[in-house]
Known about the structure:
The chain has 145 residues and is α+β, with helices and mostly antiparallel strands. It is 52% helix and 15% strand. It has helices spanning 12-28, 33-43, 45-55, 93-101, 109-120, 130-144; strands at 59-63, 69-74, 80-84, 89-90, 124-127. A five-stranded mixed β-sheet has the order 4-3-2-1-5. Mean pLDDT is 87; it is low at 1-8.
Amino acid sequence: MPCGAMAVALPAVVEELLNEMAAAVQESARIPDEHLLSLKFVFGSSAIQALDLVDRRSVTLISSPSGRRVYQVLGSSGKTYLCLASCHYCSCPAFAFSVLRKSDSLLCKHLLAVYLSQVTRTCQQLSVSDKQLTDILLTEKRQET
Length: 145
């Protein structure tokens, strides 16, 4: 997975599904229908929305010389969200509400799009200085408050 390994503790069934999808994509350059159905079963409508984000190439891996990495996802509304795959976090309101507060979703569509872009090897890559990455993170934090 060129955009970074999934270093996050996801339920075993989700991790297995993503690993199987990655192997299938490597073999045939496409996600088999049965995996898409499984994705829809596990994530509901978020799966379709996440796949749309991946199709639109809305996921960018931003990395700095120090090794810090953050994903930026351009949402369907035109707003960008920061995702930290290493700790299973997204800055969007849906993540805060549905994943953290209510615990009725495993992931928001943005974080799922990050994992799917890793599987399909379609995330954009952007290298920035450490200062630029810090500025990106601070700007996001200011927008949240």
